[in-house]
Specification:
- By secondary structure, the protein is mostly beta strands.
- 0% of the residues lie in helices and 60% in strands.
- The protein is built from no helices and eleven strands.
- It is elongated, with a radius of gyration of 14 Å.
Length: 118
């Protein structure tokens, strides 16, 4: 079992910055990939950025050049630094963590609202 607690969402003006953080607590297994997804009203949840345990990253095209994902393996935390925010970045952002025991299970945080005003 993995519990994810997110923080850092809020309201920001277009062009501004926000930093999202997520801390994972687990009772067994190990966390492999961690990531951030988002879901805007009426849209499907989509990947924003993901980071493997070895630090390899993957970004959505919309996030490249503006967002940076990072993690601390010792603390099981992941962060998303978001710069040059746009109104279309408005969404609920979810932290994810893939936990490997026998198989691999993806866990989700409760979500944090990011609203960018234009």
């Amino acid at each position: 079992q993995v519990q994810l607690v997110e923080s850092g969402g809020g309201l920001v003006q277009a062009g501004g910055s926000l930093r999202l953080s997520c801390a994972a607590s687990l009772s067994s297994g190990s966390i492999t990939s961690m990531g951030w997804y988002r879901q805007a009203p009426g849209k499907q949840r989509e990947l924003v950025a993901a980071i493997a345990r070895d630090g390899m990253t993957n970004y959505a095209d919309s996030a490249k050049g503006r967002f940076t994902i990072s993690r601390d393996n010792a603390k099981n935390t992941v962060a998303l630094q978001m710069n040059s925010l746009k109104s279309e970045d408005t969404a609920v952002y979810y932290c994810s963590a893939d936990c490997r025991t026998i198989g691999t299970t993806r866990y989700w945080g409760q979500g944090t609202q990011v609203t960018v005003s234009s």
